[in-house]
């Protein structure tokens, strides 16, 4: 016969079970803290909602943003909760870096653009040509960029031909950086001619690669220069890209919506 369960035995079982629950809770907490630590200090995923950085980034791309290259500020932390003034371990970005930053106007949005001007630089546009410190940035015309139209990529600022959007495409040679592809619409746009901007201390001048479809530091009513303390990090790699055509009721469309050729692109 099985001996009746005594009080001492029951107490012993309750005590032996407690560490199991505590261990599970501790594991969960450690996993959450590790995830927050990675997201805060190493890298954070972002999705791209607009076409302002085409062809480098397309609406529907998902990217990893490295947090450590430029140091840390309030913008580096989830919900911007850290009581940090300025930046810790600050390093100046390089011209040509693709960066993510919080809204300089104080909004909750994040933006992704390319660094064009550093503190002290003079920037202007003349007939679509970028001038840096009174010197035109060399560029050459290459084959048009042809972008398939999809729910995530409407034809904005380009020329629609059937179910595709066509842009004039150039390769720019930004000083200190490799070649950059930029897109332009079929006609001159408002931001193709600007006054001269002088980048103040502790700030950056940024632009989108889709020059005729980007609200950036050129725009009179835009966010202007980007303070260094607003930097979130440097865009490093695209790990997923979706054209927006997937439907919940059609599992077959889930794979068809993936742009496999954009996965793993270094930025």
What is Rg? Answer: 25 Å
Percentage of residues in DSSP E strands: 25-35%
Shape: flat
**How many domains, as an integer?**
1
Helical coverage, percent range: 10-25%
Tally of helical segments: 2
* The CATH superfamily title: Umud Fragment, subunit A
Sketch the major β-sheet.
7 strands, antiparallel
Low-confidence stretches: 1-15
Distance between the termini: 72 Å
Total strands: the figure is: 15
CATH top-level class: Mainly Beta
CATH architecture: Ribbon
Structural class: alpha+beta
- Helix-strand sequence: HEEEEEEEEEEEEEEEH
CATH topology: Umud Fragment, subunit A
| Overall residue-averaged pLDDT value | 89
Strand arrangement within the widest β-sheet reads 1-2-15-3-4-13-14
Outline the structure in words:
The structure is a single chain. The protein is α+β, with helices and mostly antiparallel strands and 267 residues long. It has a single domain, classed as Umud Fragment, subunit A (Ribbon), CATH 2.10.109. Helix content is 15%, strand content 31%. The protein is built from two helices and 15 strands. The protein has helices spanning 7-41, 252-256, and strands at 43-47, 61-66, 98-102, 110-117, 122-126, 129-132, 135-136, 139-148, 159-161, 164-173, 179-184, 197-198, 203-207, 226-227, 231-241. A seven-stranded antiparallel β-sheet has the order 1-2-15-3-4-13-14. A hairpin with a 2-residue loop joins strand 9 and strand 10. The chain is flat. It starts with 6 loop residues before the first helix and ends in an 11-residue tail after the last helix. The model is unreliable at 1-15 (pLDDT under 50).
């Amino acid at each position: 016969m099985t001996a009746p369960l005594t009080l001492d035995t029951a107490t012993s079982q309750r005590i032996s079970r407690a560490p199991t629950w505590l261990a599970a809770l501790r594991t969960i907490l450690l996993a959450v803290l590790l995830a927050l630590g990675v997201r805060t200090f190493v890298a954070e995923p972002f999705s791209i909602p607009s076409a302002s950085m085409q062809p480098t980034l397309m609406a529907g791309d998902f990217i990893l943003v490295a947090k450590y290259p430029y140091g840390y500020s309030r913008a580096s932390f989830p919900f911007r909760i850290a009581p940090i003034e300025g930046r810790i371990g600050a390093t100046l970005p390089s011209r040509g870096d693709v960066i993510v930053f919080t809204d300089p106007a104080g909004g909750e949005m994040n933006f992704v653009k390319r660094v064009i001007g550093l503190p002290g630089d003079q920037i202007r546009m003349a007939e679509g040509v970028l001038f840096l410190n009174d010197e035109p940035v060399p560029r050459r015309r290459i084959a048009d960029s042809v972008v398939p139209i999809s729910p995530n990529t409407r034809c904005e600022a380009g020329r629609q031909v059937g179910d595709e959007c066509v842009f004039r495409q150039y390769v720019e040679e930004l000083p200190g950086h490799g070649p950059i592809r930029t897109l332009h619409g079929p006609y001159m746009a408002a931001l193709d001619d600007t006054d001269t901007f002088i980048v103040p201390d502790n700030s950056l001048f940024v632009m989108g690669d889709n020059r005729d479809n980007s609200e950036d530091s050129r725009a009179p009513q835009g966010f202007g220069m980007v303070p260094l303390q607003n930097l979130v990090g440097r865009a490093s790699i695209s790990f997923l890209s979706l054209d927006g055509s997937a439907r919940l009721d059609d599992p077959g469309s889930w794979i068809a919506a993936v742009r496999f050729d954009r996965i793993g692109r270094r930025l």
